[in-house]
Amino acid sequence: MVTIKLQVCYNFVVIIMNIKISDIKDLFKNRISDANKGDFGKCGILGGSINYTGSVKLAILACAAMRSGAGICRIIIEEDLTSAIIPFILEETLWPLNDDLDKAILDLDSLAIGMGWTISNKNKEVLEYILKEFKGKLIIDADGLNILAKNLDLLNVTNAQVILTPHPKEFSRLINKEVDEVLNNPIKLAMDFAKKYHVIILLKGAKTIVVDGNNYYEINIAVPGLATAGSGDVLSGILVGFMAYNKYNIKSVAAAALLNALAGKIAEDKYTDIAMVAHDTIECIPDAIKKIRSNV
Predict the structure, then answer these.
(1) Could you give the percent of the chain with pLDDT greater than 90?
(2) Is the model's pTM score more than 0.85?
(3) Which of 5, 22, 41, 44 is geometrically suited to a Cys-Cys bond with 108, CB 3.0 to 4.6 A?
(4) Residue 199: which of 166, 239, 247, 164 has the closest Cα?
């Protein structure tokens, strides 16, 4: 059962629901024997830049997306990055991006954008195009969020079902407030923003929260080992893969966040909070799914 309690935040009353494994078990049911990859959606990952290790990050994201259940994962990158990423991908497909962005995203059920990016006019144009033209579930992360922070009006014209995945610093840029203000009052600030722009926000941190403007979930699994480079990329990969075959709603987003936390906890128990790295979380996704399915 969901644990429910009331909290008053600056005259703002919210119902806090600590999501538990039993609440999401129905989203991880066994697949039918004659299933095929087309039954579980197509997800895309668009990002990377020549100046950063974005290519490797995209490969990690794609691996996490496949582990979380997507039928197909497509990595969409600038053509000059293809040689850098090819050695890191196996099951995923690669789409070198020229001027055919519309074809790259046309048949996708979910898309994650912004990881490994830089802030540039070209990337702003790409984000603007996708927000206006893409009609699937859109996860915006990293520099995608930083570009969006300067162009929030784009959220008023989007046709996508938007999920934002900021950490407190990125969220502070989105709402133009100091990080301390976010840390002191995350629920109300996130709820206000989600309600105003009709988005779902997954605010990352030691205590992850998921809000849609009306409802609020809290993932209360402490995993210090996730405080390592790349953990946010893994979470975005799990989320975009999971959303490829699940409905756009706060429960699905919270379920993906809980899956990430459980996999992280299993990895931490295996490798310790000191020694674990982000990729360990991906390796433990299968065990996390088994844990969810066996919950009674």
Answers:
(1) 74
(2) yes
(3) 44
(4) 164
